[in-house]
Amino acid sequence: MSKKFITLFMFVLFALSTFVLASQIIILHTSNIYGNVLPYDYFSNMYQPKGLAILKTYVDNLRSSNPDTILIDTGNLLYGSPFGDYSSLQEDNPVINAFNLLNYDAFVPGTFEVNYSPERLIGVFKNLKTSVLAANLANVFPSNVVSFKVKTMSNGFKVAMIGVVVPYDSQKYVDYIESVRNTLNTAKKMNPDLIILATSGGITNDPITGKQIAIRSELNIGDELVREFSKDVDIFLFGNQDFVYTGSKSNKIYSVTGSEAKGVNKITLNVEKDKSFKIKSVKIERVLLSNVEPSEIVLNQVKKFEGDFNKWLDEVIAQSNISVGFNKYMAMLDDNFVTEFVNKLIINYTNSNLGIWNVFNANCPGIPQGEITRRDLYSLVGKTTSVKLVKMTGADIKNYILTSAKLLKYNGVRILFDESLTNKPWLYDLFENINYSVVLNENKIRSIKYLGRDLDDNSEVIVSVPSVRTYGTNPILRGEVIEDFEIPVQQIIFENLKGRVIDGAMDSNYSVYVKLEYEVKPGDTFNQILQRLAVTDSELLELNPIIKNINLIRPGWKLVYYKKYLNLIPPIREFFEVK
């Protein structure tokens, strides 16, 4: 053997011994799908790029380019949207069938799932063609319900997935911290290269900065899981909350993925293998599905339900003796029947003292006279949300009222609406069961009464709050959650309204005022000014301490007074704009 050949052979051996195998692994996270399959919003009756049909196209394309892709959902899958609510009544559930077409690697049940009876939940799990991860569920379930699973990728990289359920409602649970700890110890014996802890619970604080981003609730078990298991867990996937969070620090990943399958949180790991695997980099990003075409396979599968579904939507639930229109801007300027109607139904259902509600459908047409169908009622809700009962002080309530009032400005001619209210009018919180008025250009509460008395700062009341207002944009954070009602608001409405007749009684508990100024003219008397301004003598005297004697009114004095914005003359009900 020649010396040159031996040298070449030794070089090849050395190169092979130092060869590093590089590859990429992708993890996709979804949650709160709420039964959305089709790219259509049945709350507002318009096309919207979301749902399992679009998601399947995206996932299939990604898997074709990288088979090492893992797909995990963290709960609230089955219902909450109109189509999901309909599907939950079908023996052959089209949402489950569509979900199965995506070949999910794992599913963690959410609060909407564990709301089911144990018997019904068993049926759901039997029909899901995926691993159901639920380390702390103690019921006897089918064999696909496990504490964890390990998936080996094409290059030998092992991913351990552990699931923990929010302990809610009538299921049997064991301590979730202890169950995760035991499951971790078992999973680690299989020498995984990556550990994912997926929960259907939410978070209260930003896992990286510690800043509070949601109201504290027993459903937010994610914070404790992060504190207890950050040493061993590489990726934390959360659920239940309808906002998007993509956090990354020191190769740790934290994910909250919004709702309705409008997008996915995509986690990309670049790994290398020498003698063992090493994660060289990891990133998380939000991927919107707005430009993705729906899967024909999914569309064809659900097509057979279309006719029956629309008949179900058009079933009559109640009757209305009135026809009431709705305008999202007018609703912020004066009490309106539509928001009051829904708010009081929620208050009665939850036995709260007060309620916060604003219509989540920016294009809600209102309530028609005559027959009221499911479709009509869905439009009054506009979005999937459950309800929390929050104990608040009078000071808390006043703070929320003034926070909302800051979104409106009066420029001396018209009201200017903050741009955020264009697509999200529900950021303006409307209270029911208190009587209150605000003065926009002073940003103050003119009056606020509860049960006929001035609301004291230290008094405590129970307020029903839409869950989606307790996180996300300008969230309601003050107060103590005393109960979570994990039921979609539309179900509350259907249950309490079925067979009833809607009439037009309204309490006019809310109004918007502006502060105006009048310059006293020569010859003006006190009584003439009262008539001209249409105010009471007590109010004018209180607002203008310069008046010591009503018989001594001086020309040139500038007197201030309040007027209800919508009562200004000339009529300016349409004089408002978005700033």
Automatic annotation (TrEMBL):
Where do the LysM domain residues begin and end? 516-561
Pfam families attached to this UniProt entry: 5_nucleotid_C (PF02872), LysM (PF01476)
Q: Name one GO cellular component term.
A: outer membrane-bounded periplasmic space
Tell me the GO BP annotations in alphabetical order: nucleotide catabolic process
Could you cite one Gene Ontology molecular function of this protein?
A: hydrolase activity
Name by which UniProt lists this protein: Peptidoglycan-binding LysM
* Species per Swiss-Prot/TrEMBL record: Fervidobacterium nodosum (strain ATCC 35602 / DSM 5306 / Rt17-B1)
